[in-house]
Structure formats: C-alpha cells, structure tokens
C-alpha cells in the first residue's frame, strides 16, 4: 500500500482541528491524528488516553505535549514489547530526529520556554500551540511516511 500524497498535510490538519475544534490537548491531538490517518484504530481510545498526562509540559511546563505525543506515536509503530528486541534503538533514533526537527523550528521543546511571552490560556497562546501541534504532527507524519516508503517501517497500514 502507498500512503496518499496528502498524508502529511492530512495528519497536520487533523491534529490542529482536534486541538482547536475538538478540545483535545496537544499530545492527545497529535496521537489522534496519527492513529486516524494510519488506520490504527485497534486500541484508539486507550492510545489517545496515554497522551492525557502529557499536556502543559506534563503539567509542569517541561517537555511540550505536542512533541511527547508525537514521540508516543513513534512508539506505537516502532516500539518494542520484548526487552531483548534491538529495534528499540531505531525507535530511540527516530525520537531523537523528532526532537531535533521540532527544536530547529521552535528553538526549544520546553513548554514553559515556548510560552514564556504569552498568558497561559490566552487566544495568543492557543494559536501558538495550534501551530506547534501542527508542526509536531507534520514532523512525525514525515518520519512515518519516509519509513513506510523506504520499507523500513515495522507496521502495515490497512487497505482502504
């Protein structure tokens, strides 16, 4: 199966909409968009719920929830369930790539730093977070697309 040409833009748009329209938090919105556009609906609710402790920098202003949600999304497809599985190194490498790509755009992955010049909960902060949610979703979608198209992915997408 080939991913649609619109895969990356679809994941980004869905994540942004889930954040703004559906009232999901940043991490939840990214996970929801990735699951929806990869057809991974087998544990949809539970996987989105995994992201519920991550918003607002894990409640402390640390790591951006959009980035941690994107990292969890990578784990869904590249993570291990057996502690002897060496594929974990590939997953860690992809997480590092995600981190560096987001940081190159926003100069930080710390929620507190990213939002230091805006009032928490203000329309300005929500708009900035919408953009960050979209960026994190786009980065993870590009990674998934590349891994799928180069056949290094360990996941299979359902036929539509």
What does this structure look like?
- The chain is mainly α and 160 residues long.
- It has one domain (7-149).
- Helix content is 66%, strand content 0%.
- The chain has helices at 7-20, 26-38, 44-50, 55-61, 65-78, 88-106, 111-114, 123-149.
- Helix 6 packs across helix 8 (123-149).
- The longest helix has 27 residues, at 123-149.
- The radius of gyration is 15 Å and the shape is globular.
- The chain starts with 6 loop residues before the first helix and ends in an 11-residue tail after the last helix.
Provide key terms for this protein.
160 residues; mainly alpha; 66% helix; Multihaem_cyt_sf; C_GCAxxG_C_C family probable redox protein; CGCAxxGCC_motif
The radius of gyration over CA amounts to 15 Å
Order of secondary-structure elements: HHHHHHHH
Give the biggest beta sheet: none
| Global shape | globular
Q: Uncertain spans, ≥5 residues at pLDDT below 50?
A: none
Helix content: 55-70%
Number of domains: 1
Strand content: under 5%
Instruction: Work out the helix count.
Output: 8
Organism: Desulfobaculum bizertense DSM 18034
Protein name: C_GCAxxG_C_C family probable redox protein
Present the secondary structure layout.
Blueprint: H1 7-20, H2 26-38, H3 44-50, H4 55-61, H5 65-78, H6 88-106, H7 111-114, H8 123-149
Helix pairs in contact: 1-2, 1-8, 2-3, 2-5, 2-8, 5-6, 5-8, 6-8
How would you summarize this macromolecular structure in one to three sentences?
InterPro entries: CGCAxxGCC_motif, Multihaem_cyt_sf. Helices cover 66% and strands 0% of the residues.
């Amino acid at each position: 199966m080939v991913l649609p040409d619109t895969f990356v833009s679809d994941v980004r748009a869905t994540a942004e909409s889930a954040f703004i329209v559906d009232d999901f938090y940043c991490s939840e919105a990214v996970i929801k968009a990735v699951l929806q556009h990869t057809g991974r609906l087998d544990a949809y609710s539970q996987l989105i719920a995994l992201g519920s402790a991550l918003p607002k920098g894990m409640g402390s202003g640390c790591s951006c929830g959009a980035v941690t949600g994107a990292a969890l999304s990578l784990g869904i497809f590249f993570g291990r369930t057996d502690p002897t599985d060496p594929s974990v190194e590939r997953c860690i490498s992809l997480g590092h790539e995600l981190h560096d790509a987001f940081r190159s755009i926003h100069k930080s992955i710390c929620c507190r730093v990213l939002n230091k010049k805006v009032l928490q909960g203000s329309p300005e902060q929500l708009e900035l977070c919408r953009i960050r949610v979209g960026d994190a979703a786009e980065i993870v979608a590009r990674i998934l697309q590349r891994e799928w198209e180069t056949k290094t992915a360990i996941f299979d997408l359902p036929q539509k």
